[in-house]
Amino acid sequence: MKNGPVTIKDIARELNISASTVSRALADNPLVKKETKIAVKELARKYSYKPNYTALSLRSSKTSTIGIIVPQLVHEFFSSVIRGIEDHAYSNGYNVIICSTNELYEREVIDANALLSGKVDGLLACISRNTGNFDHLKAFQERGIPLVFYDCICDEIDTHKVVIDDKNAGYVATNHLIDQGCKKIAYIGGPANLFINRDRFEGYRKAITDAGLEFGGDCIVHCDSGDYNDGFEATAEILEQCEIDGIFACTDMLAVGAIKKLKSQRIRVPEDVAVVGFSNWSISSLYEPSITTIDQPGYEMGRQATEMLINQINDPGNRKFKICTLQSSLIVRESSNRLTSNH
Question: Which of 140, 162, 178, 324 could bridge across to 305 with cysteines, CB 3.0–4.6 Å?
Fold first, then answer.
């Protein structure tokens, strides 16, 4: 046998049969004799034969590969989403290629173009907070490649989308603070250009309005990101301008930053200011005080998005797109639980 990777032709030559017979034998075609199948597979194992998937995909116009664009790999929510994607993809015979944009539009364009050139069968995309132009994603539909958005979506492209009911989640989080006796509730959110943040803010606004409380002013801050430093600085800004007794922070890291600033000012949590976060990162249960938060069904989001994408791959002519909206839940912990506080 030759040096280098063994091919179907090499196996056919050694067994003195045709390459097409070898191919059918490896695929368990019932038209191939049992003894021929056994001989082919034994020789394939002996020489560690591996199929040439690139050649196969060129012949079939299918790669059995799904591309994923994700803003952050270190984000626990997105890690959960990816687990849902991978489990459903692998169980249906698909591989996945994960591209992390680090919340950069330029990286998102590069990654999208790379996946487009790699001829993936479909794309699952969550846009970065800096994305304002969607031509790089429209290119997938223009080439007939199925596309599904999850979490941070684009309204300019008509396709399947999987989202959290962020408006209701924002309402529930804020209403919980109201139930705890808060009257002056601050809002600390992420970039206002993203639908998820707009919806969380709208839920906050509706809860405040429904309760007949004061709305607007300096107690509302939209941050450039949703990280710890923004939470710390936003809280410092709010404390200089307002007297507050509650904070709804749109990520757990914003909540951590807020609580850190409150502690530095010797403001008690939750007795003086109650705090609610969002996403249920592991830090929210480990921090002191533990943080009340909104738990998101990330795994289910990934599973649903992948199911939609595979269905679209298998039925490319179906243009009946839908938005799948998942519900979240409130987890009450020490940072807001005034009613059972022992302090």
Answer: 162
DSSP class of 290: P
Are 100 and 72 spatial neighbours (Cβ–Cβ below 8 Å)?
A: yes
CATH topology of domain 166-296+331-340: Rossmann fold (3.40.50)
Pair 227, 287: CB distance under 8 Å: no
Six token digits for residue 310: 């595979």
Residue 307 to residue 326: CA distance in whole angstroms:
15
d(CA 7, CA 44) in angstroms, rounded, equals: 9
Which CATH number is correct for 60-164+298-326, 3.40.720.10, 3.40.50.11030, 3.40.50.2300, 3.90.1150.10? 3.40.50.2300
Going from the C-alpha of 82 to that of each of 100, 124, 304, the distances in angstroms are: 11, 10, 11
End-to-end CA, the chain:
79
Cα–Cα distance measured from residue 281 to residue 284, given in angstroms and rounded to the nearest whole number: 6
| Torsion angle (degrees, nearest 10) of CA 174, 175, 176, 181 | 100
Residue with tokens 């299918």: 62
Pick out the chain residues at pLDDT < 50: 58-59, 342-343
Give the largest CA-CA distance in the chain: 87
Q: Which one-letter DSSP state was computed for residue 291? A: P
Phi, psi (rounded to 5 degrees) for 161: -140, 140
Residue with tokens 């490649």: 145
Angle (CA) 211 214 216, round 5°: 120
Please report the pLDDT score of residue 52 as a whole number.
63
Under DSSP, is residue 69 helix (H, G, I), strand (E, B) or coil? strand
